[in-house]
Amino acid sequence: MIPRRAFVLALFFLPLLAASAADRPNILWITAEDLSPALGCYGDPDAKTPNLDAFAKESVRYTHAFAAAPVCSPSRSTLITGMWAPSLGTSQMRSTFPLPPSVDAFPTYLREAGYFTTNQIKTDYNTSDEMRLIQEAWDEISPTASWSSRSRQEGQPFFTVINHMVSHQSATMVWPYEVFRDVVQSKLPADQIHDPAKITVPPYYPDTEVVRRELARFHDCVSVLDQQVGALLEQLEKDGLADDTIVFFYSDHGSGMPRHKRLLHDSGMHVPLMVHFPEKWKHLAPAEAGGTVDRLVTFVDFAPTVLSLAGLEVPKAMQGQVFLGSKAAPEAEYVYGFRDRVDEVFDLSRSIRSKDYLYIRNYLPHLSWAQPSVYSDQGAIQQEIFRHAAANADSLTQPQKAYAGPTRPIEEFYDVNADPQNLVNLLEGDLNDAQKIALEAHRAAFVKKRMEILDLGVLPESLMVSFIVDENRPLREIAEGKTSHRPDLEKIWATADLVGKGERADLLELARDGDAAVRFWAIVALREAFPKDEALLEELYDSIDDVDVAVRIEAAAWMADASEKNRYEAVQVLGRELISEDWWTALRACRAVELLGEKAKALIPVMETLYARTRFAEGDGAMYLAFSSGVFLKKMGMPTEPWDFAPKR
């Protein structure tokens, strides 16, 4: 369906569009899922990627391209809108919050300018407005949609996205090995199959037979991806369109392997990006074919860049920079990164990356980077990492402990040139003067950026919903002050900044603040600083009866964990929230119960009921509740149904 605005403009500008079509490039996005720069052209010693390596010799290769987030749907929300997902309220995995009506999918503007737009077939835009975005953005969307559609007029410029899933975490580690072997590895000739004995093992993994096998499996998936990309480029050539088409190749975030996907380190955020400019359009390229560009780019830049390449104005609401063509903006000094809830795993972390350093701020440092997560934990490599960590707790190397250990630092700071794998947190040693200056600069850049974009990720999801319901407007408009009330993001973030740094008296005062989000973060900060302080918990006893549900749950989870005296009352609070009709609220309580384990065993009957209701129900919320409740019940020795994410054969 053509959007009404596009239809009206097309009628008005039809003669102009017909005249200018030949002067606009076709644009093809070839996207891969869950792929770090594990390619020969990026220097990976284990890669067997001849097609992509050949493509690199004819393209401009970026060495500092970064995803918006280390997971798919928040990154794709950023890609499709040209706005940071946290600024829209779409940074939580599979969220269903609305966008302002003025926020469009960027291909909509291409359609209005006469482009034929197709998508094969990934959307995953992480908003309740997903169907609107799809209808506005794409002339065709299907498993076969492409430039060759009969609906495309002769000579009509196109924007086509073709997404490849063979490198997705499902194939690289979650499916049983036998399924991978039959579905993926069988597509490779013998000389393309990787030998586990010769594979490179990163220092944050144990060097075991299982780990080697699974790393070889990952590289086999990448080799199949390489075949698929080669076939697609060959088809573009056969169709006589290669000379008129600018081709992007990139992935949606780092690889799906442990310590990559879901983490803000370079292993989760650094992506391959290559852009091919045919002779006709090479004047738009920032370097010669085969050259490299070290400019910092991130996903929020992609939408404005494509619009600019097509000769269109960039909407003012977009938050990225044009990085190609005659209207390329000056290079940014830093790129932002975010990590919020993923599936059933709650989190809040942010990153700032320059060419020299990576700064990460963790707001739930009492939780591991390797928090239990049902989907990822299906993988044999993840299970092997956990097994090794449990069996060798006293002899883990620092990189292994940093990933698999029970906690993580409040802040992380890495010299990415000396330490490209982000193994040595400089804050665990003495900084030299240059590093001290750089640290303060990165901290300041983080604070500036989060307020510049109005990062809403600091709000618990239940509070996000309350704002939307109370104001009857999208979160972005609420944050911009277009309604009667708005969250005081500066104060809320400042309170969250006290995690790991706040004074007891100050935090106690904030725990009684009139703003629920401030109270929430004060409780988190007190828990992190004084985890076993029962006298403090007595002072905070009333917090388990707070008017705000997120505060109640956080306080009750802490009290159930640390206060034997008040554990019964705290567990009952969590039990009441387990039956909430709002899945995001029930999930927060359920996750707290899961992590409490034996201390919350009184809730076994409630968790059994929740599990029975959600295990085979439809919807992401139900699945996450089933994930979490099932793990708890299994810990308690109760029967559960195993998960099977493998494709049916």
What does this protein structure show overall?
- The chain has 649 residues and is an alpha/beta fold.
- Among the domains are: 4-18 and 25-339, 3-Layer(aba) Sandwich (Alkaline Phosphatase, subunit A); 556-649, no CATH class.
- It has helices at 4-20, 50-57, 72-81, 85-88, 107-112, 130-137, 169-174, 177-183, 209-238, 266-269, 302-309, 380-391, 398-404, 433-453, 461-471, 475-479, 489-496, 504-510, 516-529, 534-539, 549-562, 567-578, 583-596, 604-614, 620-635, and strands at 26-32, 60-62, 65-66, 116-120, 140-141, 158-164, 245-251, 273-276, 292-293, 297-298, 335-339, 349-353, 357-362, 411-415.
- The strands form three sheets. Strands 5-4-6-1-7-8-2-9 form an eight-stranded mixed sheet. The protein has a four-stranded antiparallel sheet with strand order 11-12-13-14, with helices on one face.
- Strand 12 (349-353) and strand 13 (357-362) form a beta hairpin.
- It is globular, with a radius of gyration of 25 Å.
- The two termini are 35 Å apart.
Q: What does this entry show, briefly?
A:
The protein has 649 residues and is an alpha/beta fold. The protein contains 25 helices and 14 strands. The model is unreliable at 6-20 (pLDDT under 50).
Q: Tell me how many strands there are.
A: 14
Share in β-strands: 5-15%
- Poorly predicted regions are 6-20
In the CATH hierarchy, the third-tier topology of one domain is known as Alkaline Phosphatase, subunit A
Number of helices: 25
Instruction: Quote the distance from N terminus to C terminus.
Output: 35 Å
What is the residue-mean pLDDT, rounded to a whole number?
95
